[in-house]
Amino acid sequence: MRRTILDETHARHKAQLSDQLKRLLAFCARLGHNELHELVANQLANLDEPFLFVVVGEVKSGKSSFVNALLSSDVCAVDPAPCTDIIQQIVYAERAEEYRVNPHLKRIGLPQEILKSIAIVDTPGTNTVIEHHQELTKTFIPNSDIVFVVFPAKNPHTKTAWDFLDFVADEWRKSVVFILQQADLARPDELKVNTEKVIEYAGTHGIASPRVFATSAELERQGRDDSGFEAIRAMIRETVTGGKHVRLKLESILRAASRAEAQLDARLQQMASQLERDRAIVETMRTRLT
Fold first, then answer.
1. Which residues contact 72 (CB under 8 A, 6 or more apart)?
2. Model confidence band, residue 79 (pLDDT cutoffs 50, 70, 90)
3. Which of 15, 34, 39, 46 is a good FRET partner for 249, with 20 to 30 A between their CA atoms?
4. Smallest Cα–Cα separation from 233: which of 246, 220, 222?
5. Chain centroid to CA 247
6. CB–CB of 210/201 below 8 Å?
7. Region at 215 (left for phi over 0; alpha for psi -120 to 50; beta for the rest)
8. Whole-number Cα distances in Å, 31 to 217, 255, 268, 270
9. Model pTM greater than 0.70?
10. What sign for the dihedral angle of Cα 164, 169, 170, 172?
């Protein structure tokens, strides 16, 4: 009975949010705001999409290894030389497939059960992503439900990752999870200090009570229980399969819709001010002509 109530509640909230987004879409069209029209259209489509995890971090931070270990599958290329120069979107498919959507985006389909509930986006390094990858900054980040920010466990001080975090947290107000990857390369005392540093840095960037996980893809590959990945999977199970993803996803889309409403309101106020100025000019001309 409780499941039925939750499902009905979710369906009602989802329908209400869908109606709100459709009204926003109409306003965007009437105002000729193409950028916001695209954003709202993406959010409307996102209502029926899987829960989206976006993984960001500098080159060589261990992002691809993190994704591979999380999915227990070598879906992302891992090489001693920096090689992830495109965005990789990992989704569910009945059989394994891979194809280029465009020069900057590759889609990988896998027959893994977890991908029915979530999709994962593995990204290039944050030192190049804002400049060269509009798909991420204009599509995937706005539509994301959780952003994993990955740091090397021995060096969580990388500037471009923290700069990009400001963009994620301030511009789109996304839920962020911090990963200290390659934890097997750090001493226990070093890992403790760097975990505390991430918490400190997150606070200075406006994120209170941040979630920080230390992981080792290498230990996970060896089947070790101390790899740190079970804690990540437990968080995913709680968030996704435990039902919280329903609420979180709607909240994420609602935040994006609220941001779009604020921008539309600003545009309307600007247009109203211009209209008043135009009316004043017309009235002045009418007075002079009479």
1. none
2. low
3. 34
4. 220
5. 16
6. no
7. beta
8. 49, 21, 8, 12
9. no
10. positive
Nearest 5°: phi and psi at 3? -60, -40
pLDDT at position 5: 32
Model confidence pLDDT, tens digit, residues 218-261? 999 899 999 999 998 888 777 665 666 666 677 777 787 787 88
Locus of tokens 């403790």: 192
DSSP-derived letter for residue 142 is H
* Mean pLDDT, the chain, integer: 79
Lookup result for tokens 């916001």: 36
pLDDT score, position 28: 82
Name, in order, each residue with C-beta under 8 angstroms of 86's C-beta and a sequence gap of 6 or more.
103, 104, 105, 106, 124
Residue labelled with tokens 């290329």:
77
- The CA-based angle 19-54-253, given to 5 degrees, is 15
Cα-Cα-Cα-Cα dihedral sign, residues 207, 208, 211, 216: positive
Q: Which candidate, 141, 147, 150, places its Cα nearest to that of 58? A: 150
Average pLDDT over residues 163-178: 72
Beta strand ranges found along the chain (DSSP E): 51-56, 87-92, 97-102, 105-110, 118-122, 146-152, 175-181, 211-214
